[in-house]
Amino acid sequence: MASLNFDLTGKVAIVTGGTGGLGLAIAEAMLDAGAKVAVGSRKPEKVAAALETLSEGRPEGSVLSTQLDVADRASVDAAVAKVVETFGRVDILVNNAGANLKKPTLDVEEAEHKQLFDINYFGPFYMAQAFARQCIAQGKPDEDASGGGGYSIVNVCSVTSFLALSEVTTYAATKGALLALTRQLAVEWPRLYGIRINAVAPGFVPAEQNRKILESGDRGRRILECTPMQRFGTAEEIAGAAVFLVSPAARFINGECINVDGGFMIHGVSDSMKPIE
Ligand SMILES: NC(=O)c1ccc[n+]([C@@H]2O[C@H](COP(=O)([O-])OP(=O)(O)OC[C@H]3O[C@@H](n4cnc5c(N)ncnc54)[C@H](OP(=O)(O)O)[C@@H]3O)[C@@H](O)[C@H]2O)c1
């Protein structure tokens, strides 16, 4: 029987928004698994800091950090071209870049609604198209030679891809659309281009865009009450699922979304839980 293989040696991964929060941890985990990694985001200071962090202790030439606005198709095409110029190919895309907006739905302005869709939905869509075009140019992967796994996309969804939370209507709509995109591509692209498409749905992980909401006030406390594991997640815990999904070990997993949420999604109503003495 062939042994399980989580090794990404020889593969090139792009992690959008890989300059902070979950994306930086995903980029580090892909490097640890042997891939060469390109990260990108809008702010030059974050792009520079990510290069420094990710390069530390790594072989020269294993990291690229570039400016990228996923909401801008020209920027997406330029970034993918830069990855190919630097590393010669692409194998893995993690659509992680994203933004949040919490306010009462009646107060959401059209421009805010559209901007969030531009980043959270159209961004992954543009990236997936640019990535797939490059995969097609490289040719369909030989399953045996690549150790299985082939080309792979992971979309970073959310618990709001499945269920509703108050006052994040636009965000939830974008993440619901991203899950639908994951399933659509997963039906079309494996047999045409050898690309598997999956998703992870992180639970609640304190990061730049949500730290204030999670760590102050009532909402964070109530989230913890509905999380059987009684804590927030860490970026590394999300990264583990992403590495698994793009690895040869997951070569028959396609169109799936892994919830990494300490059980939040399966929680109904329980008695208030006292810690075990
Ligand atoms: N943290 C959680 O609890 C949680 C839960 C569920 C889902 N998620 C999802 O996980 C992903 C990462 O979130 P995070 O919590 O790590 O947030 P974060 O710390 O705010 O990081 C977001 C990253 O995306 C980049 N970014 C934002 N807009 C971009 C754009 N237009 N083009 C390129 N890069 C862009 C940011 O860099 P720049 O500012 O430099 O562009 C930053 O590096 C998001 O898709 C989010 O929706 C997070």
Considering the chains and any ligands shown, give keywords for the structure.
8 helices; alpha/beta; binds NADP nicotinamide-adenine-dinucleotide phosphate; 7 strands; 277 residues; 7-stranded parallel sheet; Rossmann fold
Describe the structure.
Helix content is 43%, strand content 14%. The model has no long low-confidence stretch (mean pLDDT 94). Helix 1 packs across helix 8, helix 3 runs parallel beside helix 4 and helix 4 packs parallel to helix 5. It has 277 residues and is α/β, with parallel strands linked by helices. It has one domain: NAD(P)-binding Rossmann-like Domain (Rossmann fold, 3-Layer(aba) Sandwich), CATH 3.40.50.720. The protein has a 7-stranded parallel sheet with strand order 3-2-1-4-5-6-7, with helices on both faces. It binds NADP nicotinamide-adenine-dinucleotide phosphate (NAP). The site of NADP nicotinamide-adenine-dinucleotide phosphate has 30 residues, from helix 1 and helix 4.
Number of helices: 8
Strand arrangement in the largest pleated sheet: 3-2-1-4-5-6-7
Number of DSSP E strands: 7
What is the C-alpha radius of gyration, as a whole number of Å?
19 Å
Question: By helix and strand content, what is the structural category?
Answer: alpha/beta
Query: Which fold name corresponds to the CATH topology?
Result: Rossmann fold
